[in-house]
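Please, structure for the following, as tokens.
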Amino acid sequence: MKKYLAHDPVNNEWDLFETIEEAREALTEFFLYGDEGYHPDAESFEIFELVETVKLTTTDEKSNYKYESEDAAIEANDQEAIDDENFWPHSSDFEEVCKHEFVRVP
């Protein structure tokens, strides 16, 4: 897993690297101007070591339901689906519901 995050604030670019040496090399290419010397903002470049990342686990999906909404079940006059709540109980803006957890970077 990539463990180092390099930030180039001049171009507002973020890149992930396996090793700190790779991150250093990449940033050096950004702030060195060949024979012209250092970029004036060279001291604002940063490297971060990742400690945790976010892992999402799907807990529910719209496809698990017969209808996309309660209104759709009512319009279909499907009393059984209404009684069994076999319709998507969440916002129609979402196709799935997830839970998150923070996972340590090895």
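The CA atoms of residues 15 and 33 lie 20 Å apart. The helical segments are 20-31, 70-75, 79-83.
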